[in-house]
């Protein structure tokens, strides 16, 4: 668990590391200061999720550049897909996007519009 990190909505760790890979639990679009309170739009919720992921990554000494795979869950896939993509893309360097899966789901905790989990790779000492 990450001290000061997002409030878990279920029994899980913020992240688990094994053999240089870091698996980060899906994050919700609330904030550690206001658990369960969500922004209104998909753009705002995407930024909030990415901020929560950033908190977890920073506590582990990692950043967005270490992400190798993301999974994105959207409750309003057709309505929110394009706007989410535009916001999501802004977190990554040009030409350096992680592998990704994006799926439509029937519901998420807190009735959120989006949840994102990810896999990172910690750089090897000689990298």
Topology:
Blueprint: E1 15-18, E2 21-27, H1 42-59, E3 67-74, H2 77-89, E4 99-104, E5 114-121
Parallel strand pairs: 3-4
Antiparallel strand pairs: 1-2, 2-5, 3-5
Helix pairs in contact: 1-2
Topology, number of strands: 5
Kindly report the name of the CATH homologous superfamily. Answer: RutC-like
By secondary-structure content and strand pairing, the structural class works out as alpha+beta
CATH architecture: 2-Layer Sandwich
Largest sheet: 5 strands, mixed
- CATH class descriptor name: Alpha Beta
Q: Indicate the mean pLDDT.
A: 90
Written account of the structure:
With 127 residues, the chain is an alpha+beta fold. It has a single domain, classed as RutC-like (60s Ribosomal Protein L30, Chain: A, 2-Layer Sandwich), CATH 3.30.1330.40. The chain is built from two helices and five strands, in the order ββαβαββ. A hairpin with a 2-residue loop joins strand 1 (15-18) and strand 2 (21-27). Helix 1 packs across helix 2.
Quick structural gist:
This protein is of the alpha+beta class and 127 residues long. The chain has one domain (15-121): 60s Ribosomal Protein L30, Chain: A. It has helices spanning 42-59, 77-89, and strands at 15-18, 21-27, 67-74, 99-104, 114-121.
